[in-house]
User: What shape does this take?
Amino acid sequence: MTVALHFGPAIDVPSLMVIMRTFRLVLDAGFAVAELKQTQSQRWQRLMIAAQAAEPRAYSELLQEASTFIRVIARRYHADPGTIEDVVQETLISIHRVRQTYEPGRAVEPWIAAIAKARAIDALRARLRRLKMETPVAAEVLANIPDTLRSSESSLAASTSVAEAMAALPPAQRAAVRLLKIEELSLREASEASGQSIPALKSALHRAMLSLRSVLTGGRDA
Amino acid sequence: MRETTSALIERLTSQAVPIKPLLSPWLRAAALLVPVLGLMTAIALASGNPTRVTDHFSDPVFTLALAGSLLTGIFASVAAFMLSVPGRTESWMWLPAAPGMIWLTASTVQCYRHVEEYGIHDYSPFASADCFVFILMAGTPIAVATHFLLRRALSTNLIGVTALAGLAAAALAAALLAFFHPAGTDPVDFITHLVAVSALVLYMTTLGRNALGSD
Assistant: This one.
């Protein structure tokens, strides 16, 4: 038996059944994916509400799962794995700091995605700033650097003298250099980590940089 | 060297303390607007000249300019609170655009009428200095209150949020000015109002950005 369609060729009933079954399967698969996404979204909402109540297991689970989600967003902006991981960590810190801004009942994904996107763009801006400050060095200049300066001994000596100069600093100044220059924390983060106020940190860093410069250049720049 | 992501998660989890979620942006906007509008009404009735304003309600251009500035302030405030929360659509930014256009257009028509009636004469650029001072003096407390309510939110669009907060404060102050100001706007008035509104927007964007953006 065949079915004649007004707008196309005649299709026999078994073929029509196959087409309809296939269509139903595709539809079911679509619904299943949508349901899975909804379940995931609802799960994150539950975890986020528990995280706001400081439930450690739920909070840890949410941050673990969110870091995978954030990594996907960070990859859209950065190729370097180190920078991607930095973006993931900065986003997790922001999530922790502003978890009160999540409104229970709303989807968590757009909230996390907006924070991740902002941190990824911050990293791009920081990279651009660094690039502006760096000057390309010609190959012949690099070739003329004496071997003694390239040797691992001189690098070791340099790093040892930096370490010694750092060790000689007062604890508050040493903490300022470590947090702001080595760990590259923001002023607020460094202030929270060290317990020093932001003006105190700025002043300690300034004094530390002057001391380090004076020690490492033998007082030539002082 | 930075800690690993797993170690960071462990540290953040161990530092977590229960926190109270912020109220919805609608409620926070209402918490600002209800007292501000109440206070504005009280000031307008007590010290302003409400009769002069109501007398001019029959003039659609005057009414549109007043309604435009008031709605620009209200809509910009709602938009600032919406955008202060991560994940809300950036389209909120355009909420005050329509009343803002009405306000600008109606003020331009008022200027045109003034020039048509009195012609172009020697305008002193400082003739409307008191308008400038009024908008800044009335707008600053509103801007400070908005900043106070926004301080616990992290904005992913800091410039947009602070500019909207400044616009809200300036537009509400300009609406209040209508009760202390002769009806109609001459070109110097109009330019002075624009400069005052821009100054407040710039002020909020610069200062608010430094204070809110340190996250």
Observations:
- Chain B touches chain A at residues 2, 5-6, 8-10, 12-22, 24, 84-88, 152-154, 156, 214-215 (CB under 8 Å).
